[in-house]
Amino acid sequence: MIKNLLVREHRFLHRPLSLASRLILLAAAAALVAAVFLPLWKIHLVAPQYREGLALNIYAHKLVGGNGGQDLHEINTLNHYIGMKPIAQADFVEMTWLPFALGAFALLALRAVFIGRMQSLVDLVVLFVYFTTFSLINFYVRLYNYGHELDPRAPMTIEPFMPVMFGSQKIANFIQTSLPQSGALCLGLVPLLIVFAMWCSRHETLPEQ
Amino acid sequence: MKTSLPRLMLQSAPAALATALAAVFLLAGCNPPGSTSTGAAKAGSASSPAARTWVAPGEMDEYYLFYSGGHSGQVFVAGLPSMRHISTIPVFAPYPGTGYGFDEETKQMLGDFTWGDVHHPGLSQSNGLYDGRWLFVNDNANNRVARINLRDFKTHQILGPIPNSSGNHGSSFVTENTEYVLVATRFSVPLPKGRYADPTSYEKEFNGMVSGIKVDPKDGKMSVGWQILTPPFNWDLGSTGKGPSSGWAFWTSYNTEMAYETLEATSTQRDRDYAAIVNWRAAEAAVREGRASLLSGVPVIDPAKVPGVLYFLPVPKSPHGIDTDPSGRWIAASGKLQPVTSVFDFEKIQAAIAKKEFDGEFRGVPVIRYESVLEGEVPVGLGPLHTQYDGKGNAYTSLYVESAVAKWKLPPWSDAERADLNRVVLDKIDVHYNIGHLVIGASDTREPYGKYLVAMNKLSKGRHISVGPSQPESSQLIDISGKKMEMLYEAFTEPEPHFAQILKADAIKPIEVYPKAESTHPHAIWEAKDASINRSGNTVEVKMVAIRSRFIPDRIDVNEGDELIIHVTNIEQTTDMIHGLAIVEQNTNIIIDPGETKTLRLKVKGPGVFPFYCTNFCSALHQEMQGYLTVKPKS
């Protein structure tokens, strides 16, 4: 029985990809490239005296404050009162390699388009899910550190806190909202597209010679 | 009420339930959604004056109202229709509230003067319409003109005292494309200024002047372009031409008697005084062609030698305002001492000049025949002063003696109206009291807004809770959109608005911080690490940063008698994060807006330790924003 399973698995992994699957993969590659340029995440802070809000847009390769970059200065100015260390792009080393990593995934997707084997898709989806899980945990840890590594000599003492990653929460006079943006949506689409490509070619066989 | 009514009905007769419910629905239908009682609905109905002037908390006004501040030397900014005072733009007098006149830049602009007398603000124009770039204001006392930039609502230049010009009342009248701000002298003096002559030789030794202040179209920088020498009449008010009168300007005068004492009586003897009809383009050309001679460094035109530059027009009697209508054809001049406003037709003026229909000349200047150019004398009422226009063919004249505003119809008039000009006076409304100027938005442009009129009244007695003998001024908002004028609201200002300008709020988009990218100040620093204290001889120069909630550095050590220079940059880029820097007992306070760098210079009084602190409340730890200036005694 196990042998049977292995045979089926072998047959599955060597299944060719249909034209539809290859086009879907092309779309996945495009989504990966788009994610390099689109904002991944947005943190938005609203308080009574900041009705228009302060925005922090996170890209794969840069950190951009709203209002022409000014919001990042403002967030740091405010954060110094609670002893949070300044948020600076230079501290986000991943921003130096993240675009390359996404590019590499795009290349792997293109490779799968040309090789046209189910096994490439398995490689791709496993590696990609591993990579995004790692990135999300990394993001979580960063947020945790910003909220917990507070200077004890700061003017205001507040309980260390975990900035919210999905959704909204109240921190002092601010409501912080953190949500994925179009770039993250593109990244979320990638594994779905790969699985969809697999599904489309689940019965595919090479034509008889 | 809505709930108790059916309950009552239910108790008395259950059968009436349906009727009661119907009644409740009917009652509910009377009230607009959200209102709680019929009383509130009445007071707040959309057509009530209260509703039309109500700008709810958080909502914005529709128009700016720029009041001249009179002898306060400043400009007041209010909103319409709320009439709320929003801010004060300091111009000719120090203003600790914004640190004006305490930092080196504004101190230099003010020079040795500590006050001015602002009368007539004028908005810059392009193609005969407000362009929202600058507001020009005059100083009647010290013969200056200032330019406020509407990008940051700050005074950027003060020009003057203008050479050969004394008593700068007849300005700031802006030409169609802001080529010039036109200026005329209220007080004649012996020229050049600084020369002594006995006032008994007034006719011979004293002179007036009409000046064209040239405005650089790029940055608004003002300089004296040309001047026209005039007899020593007291030039009063003016306006610039447009359309058919493009390139011309008009001023009234009093005292063509050329009296020099007890003017109240001596200058009011003649039935008519002369208005000046000035062809400013011809004046400009005369200077270009070298037909002017230099006096105090300014090209001065003698109108007797350069014909076509200046004409006189007799106007009854001791006239004050002379206002060109939006078409540029009709010019309304009001004589304070007779109850009519004279309307002149500029096309007739041009024809009279062409046909030389003159009643002789005065000192070589042709006097245009009054009857040749008069369209009519409109019996507006007692003590007419100034006229504004709504752009719909109506004029509004302030009546000082009568304490009223008259609305009247501009020409062309029918034969029946012409036969009895009382017929063109359409409406009158009382104001409280003794109105001076009045303003309709964009009345001096081709396209007046025609919605509101603000009456600026000289007396406010009995209109407000008592504040003692020093009384404020009153301004009243009048709706002129309908057939009848309607009083909406009144507000009080400090002394003393004369004229004002109204500008649509959406016509400008002021900055709210000085962008870091635009900073060119040679001593600006943007990071704490660049802060420095340098001594050179007896001068200590500090480059300082101000940010919530600290100064860097916050300790400055000097010796008694040192000169201290602090260049402080507010490195905030957030709206309303304004910092101040005051040093106790050193008589100094400068205010630095976000992104601004200012320089403070003082001879240190000491010895001792002098705390410095932030004066403009900035943050939760504003109180903590402080430092020390230590002054060691001379050894």
Give a quick rundown of the structure:
The complex is a heterodimer of chains A (209) and B (635). By secondary structure, chain A is of the alpha+beta class.
Structural class by secondary-structure content of chain B: mainly beta
- Return the string of H and E elements of chain A: HHEEEHHHEEH
Name the structural class of chain A: alpha+beta
Strand element count of chain A: 5
CA-atom Rg of chain A in angstroms: 22 Å
What is the CATH topology classification name of the domain at 516-632 in chain B? Immunoglobulin-like
Tally of structural domains of chain A: 1
Description:
The complex is a heterodimer of chains A (209) and B (635). Chain A has 209 residues and is α+β, with helices and mostly antiparallel strands. Chain A has a single domain, classed as Butyryl-CoA Dehydrogenase, subunit A, domain 3. In chain A, 54% of the residues lie in helices and 15% in strands. Chain A is built from six helices and five strands. Chain A has helices at residues 2-13, 19-37, 70-79, 94-115, 118-148, 182-200, and strands at residues 41-47, 50-58, 63-65, 167-171, 174-180. In chain A, strands 3-2-1-5-4 form a five-stranded antiparallel beta sheet. Chain A is elongated and about 75 Å long. With 635 residues, chain B is mainly β. Among the domains of chain B are: 1-31, no CATH class; 516-632, Cupredoxins -  blue copper proteins (Immunoglobulin-like). Chain B is 12% helix and 41% strand. Chain B has eleven helices and 43 strands. In chain B, strands 8, 9, 10, 11, 12, 16 and 17 form a seven-stranded mixed beta sheet that branches. In chain B, helix 1 (4-12) runs antiparallel to helix 2 (17-30). Chain B starts with a helix and ends with a strand. Mean pLDDT of chain B is 92; it is low at 1-42.
